[in-house]
C-alpha cells in the first residue's frame, strides 16, 4: 500500500478582482458564533481587531461578553478607547492595572510558566494580565492576535523601503554593522540608532525576513556571534513550502505576510498568552489564525489590505457600522511596557545583576567583561534603545528559564 502525504494547509494568494467584504464578514460571524457557545472571555485592547471581535461575539451571544484590559496606570492612553469599545459592544470590561511592585514575583513566575523563553518583554504585563484572568476562573480566552498579519501591516506598506535597504551594497551594510556595534550607538534610543539598526537588519539573508528579524548583534556578544545564515535559509525554505498557488509579481508581500503570520503572530505574539504549560485546563483561542480566515485573507487584494496607506483596511471597514471614524482610524498606542523602568526597579536590577555576575549558561555567547560593565551602568543610563531592552530581557529570561527547567 502506497502512503501519500499532503500538507494540512498551505497559504494561497490568488487575489480576486473586487474584494468581497460581505464574505469576510460572514466568516468572522461564523467564528464568533462558535466562540459564543464556548463561555469564553476576550482580551479587549481597544484596537480594531479585538473591538471587531467584541461586537461580532456580542451579536451572537445571549449574555454580555466578559472582557479584560490591562492598563499601564490611570493615564494609559488606550484605556478610554477600551472602555468605549466595551460600552459600544455591550461587553463587561474588567480593567486591571499593572502593579510594578510585583515585578520580581512576576518575572520569577514567568520563568516557570512557559514552554520556552522568548525575547519580547511585553510578556511581563501579559503574564500579569493572564494570571488575573485565570484567577477569575476563566478557562477559554480569546486573543485577537493575527489581524495585522492577515489583513495588512506596515511591512507590506513599506515594500519599496525594505527592498531599497536590502539592495544597499553588502560591504556598506557590514561596515555600518561594525560601527553600530562597537561605537555603543546601539544602547541609546535615537533617530540615528534607528537608521543604523534598520540598515544592519538588512544583512539578513532574505529581504522578506529583514524587517522581521530581531535586534542586530552588538559588542556584548562574543566576536564570532553574528546572524546565522543557515537559520535564514531554513526560514526562507519553510516560507516557500508553506506558500501554494500565488499571483505573480507579489513575491515580497506574499512571503512577508506568511513570515509575519508564522513567526510573529503564530510565534512569540501567540506564545505570550499560551499558558497551558502551567495551566493545562486554560485554552487561548486565536480566531484570526483559524483556517477559514487564513484562506480568506489570501483572496483579498493587496490594495485592499493597505488602502491608500491605511493598513488593515478590511477590518477597519467592517468596524465602521459599530464605531466612529476617529476611533477606527486613530494611531493606536502599542502594547509597550516601560522595560527601562522595569529594569531599574531595585529588586529586578538586583536579580539581573546577581543572575549574571556569577558563571552561567550564556557566558559562552557573550563578552562577560563588557556585559557586566553594561549592567553596572544601567541605573545611570537613560533612553534605553530597543536592542538594549531586548538584550537585557532575552538573556535574563533565557538564564532564568534554564535554571528552572534544566
The CATH H-level superfamily of the domain at 11-153 and 254-328 is HUPs
**CATH-assigned fold name of the domain at 11-153 and 254-328:** Rossmann fold
CATH first level of the domain at 11-153 and 254-328: Alpha Beta
Helix content: 40-55%
Largest pleated sheet? 5 strands, parallel
Unreliable sequence segments: none
The total of beta strands comes to 9
**Helix-strand topology string:** EHEHEHEHHEHHHHHHHEHEHHEEHHHHHH
| Number of helices, where a helix is a run of at least 4 consecutive DSSP H or I residues | 21
Whole-angstrom Rg: 22 Å
What gap, in angstroms, lies between the N and C termini? 43 Å
Shape: globular
Strand order of the largest sheet: 4-3-2-5-7
Can you give the mean pLDDT?
A: 88
Q: Do you know the CATH architecture of the domain at 11-153 and 254-328?
A: 3-Layer(aba) Sandwich
Indicate the proportion of strand residues.
5-15%
Helix/strand structural class = alpha/beta
What would you say this structure looks like, in words?
The protein is of the alpha/beta class. It has a domain at 11-153 and 254-328: Rossmann fold (3-Layer(aba) Sandwich), CATH 3.40.50.620. Helices cover 53% and strands 8% of the residues. It is built from 21 helices and 9 strands. Strands 4-3-2-5-7 form a 5-stranded parallel sheet, with helices on both faces. The protein starts with 10 loop residues before the first strand and ends with a helix. The model has no long low-confidence stretch (mean pLDDT 88).
